[in-house]
Amino acid sequence: MASNKVNEKLQLAEGVHMPVIGLGTWTVFGERGNAQQVKNAVKAAIDAGGRLIDCAWNYGNEAEIGEALQDKLNEGTVKRGDIFITTKLWDTHHNPKLVKRALQDSLRKLKVDYVDLYLFHWPVSFKDGDEIVPRDEHGNVIFSYHDHLDTWKAMEECVDAGLAKTIGISNFNSKQIERILANARIKPVNLQIEVSPYFQNSRIIDFSKSHGLTVTAYAPFGNPARPWKEADQPNALEDETLQKLADKKGKSVAQVILRWHLQRGLAVVPKSITPSRIKQNMEVFDFELNEEEMNTIARLDRNMRVYVEPIALSHPDYPFNEPF
Ligand SMILES: NC(=O)c1ccc[n+]([C@@H]2O[C@H](COP(=O)([O-])OP(=O)(O)OC[C@H]3O[C@@H](n4cnc5c(N)ncnc54)[C@H](OP(=O)(O)O)[C@@H]3O)[C@@H](O)[C@H]2O)c1
Which domains does the chain have, with CATH numbers? Predict the structure, then answer.
């Protein structure tokens, strides 16, 4: 059983504990939410007891998140040490010379001296610089080819400098993870990957846990509002089996899904800009799914990855061609 208490945490390193549930902040699409809504969402999450905020340099909203955090710190609602902040190194900052500067830019925007977890966002490098998706005159993304190990060394130096308490990886496959583990001076403590009822990603979860990494599920509902959703793709939040389970438990489908993630031993970062949903997403510690109910959800898997990252498909370090 993974968690029964509000503010249950996963240990990442000596003295560093990550809350198992937090707020996702990727809201770059106009109608899905703007930067001001992110600010309100962060405040609503903290008010609802949320203590983990999942950010990234390329989300373009770290400054607003920083303002919300600052407001909450000034109000005295929370202290910096109560909040766990994750942010991520973007694909255009893999050059070891750019890594520390990129993190410092995130810290300046977030208005904090350190992050609790700094993630290597994707294993594919784009052309060095601050343009999020650099393209040539034909519209093709311009790649670069930095060795993960060189980038990782620069991330380790961010820990040495006190800018990140811990470091981890996101969207790496098992071979790429093994290479980091075999060569790291400071080991990755967390893998952030897509996991949802329709994309259960079990092999890499088992692999990561057996190698001592904690795992965070992103897109825990399969991001049903994604603009690239195809008409025939199902929406987990409308799944009939999950709805029946939710009715039985007196909970929402979203809460049942989150509870399922927690009972798999994962941390989870649902995104919402809707205060009532943000509150609801934190209220998942007062019920349990039994083994049969967990198995019922396990049978919903349909290997439906929604973050395929098509712009990186032809990069030699594209992670998702491996079995896991
Ligand atoms: N490491 C990576 O490469 C990576 C990639 C993707 C995502 N992430 C992280 O993971 C976070 C979550 O993923 P995601 O944003 O793609 O998708 P998601 O959390 O699976 O889904 C978000 C959608 O669910 C809705 N929602 C949230 N709570 C709900 C509830 N209780 N009831 C009904 N609907 C609800 C939201 O609506 P409203 O907002 O309208 O309320 C939003 O449309 C991101 O924000 C980001 O922090 C990381």
Answer: 9-321 (3.20.20.100)
CA distances for 191 relative to 216, 254, 307, angstroms:
6, 23, 15
Burial of 155-171, coded b for 16+ CB within 10 Å and e otherwise, reads bbbbbeeebbbbbbbbb
Pairing mode, if any, of strands 164-170 and 190-194?
parallel
Active-site residue 59, yes or no?
A: yes
Residue 28 has pLDDT above 70, yes or no: no
Structure tokens at 215: 């795992």
Distance of CA 207 to the CA centre of its chain: 18
Q: What is the pLDDT of residue 2?
A: 44
Q: Is 125 in the pocket of ligand 1 (CB under 6 A)?
A: no
Report the DSSP beta bridge partners of residue 13: 16
Q: Write the pLDDT tens digit of every residue in 125-148.
A: 999 999 999 999 999 999 999 999
Quick check: CB of 268 below 6 Å from ligand 1?
no
